[in-house]
Design a protein that fits this description.
about 100 residues; mainly alpha; 2 domains; about 0% strand
């Protein structure tokens, strides 16, 4: 079976409402010269979205570690409280290093 027939069979399996999107995706793959500015914009958007996600995760994790550390210190579990606080500080140091090395938008 040749590649064209395989492609046609695959296209027949795609729901009708998704067909234009699939055809556009195939055309973009066949285009030998995608616009460089479009690729840079997509990469920048993806990088920004990833940075925002990481910011939210780091904030949540460090806040949780701080709360747990404080609770354990009040409960008398000083060693566990110190370990949690140490972990929080290491995460913040790593995050600070990442932010300094990250290219500025």
């Amino acid at each position: 079976m040749n590649h064209k027939l395989e492609l046609l069979e695959l296209l027949e399996k795609i729901p009708a409402e998704k067909l234009p999107e699939a055809v556009n995706a195939i055309r973009s793959l066949l285009d030998p010269t995608p616009e460089v500015s479009t690729l840079k914009t997509q990469a920048a958007h993806s990088d920004q979205a990833l940075h925002e996600l990481l910011t939210a995760i780091i904030g949540s994790v460090t806040n949780s570690l701080y709360d747990l550390s404080t609770e354990n210190e009040r409960a008398g579990a000083k060693i566990l409280a110190n370990r949690l606080d140490f972990s929080r500080m290491k995460i913040l140091e790593s995050w600070d290093t990442y932010r300094k090395k990250r290219p500025i938008d």
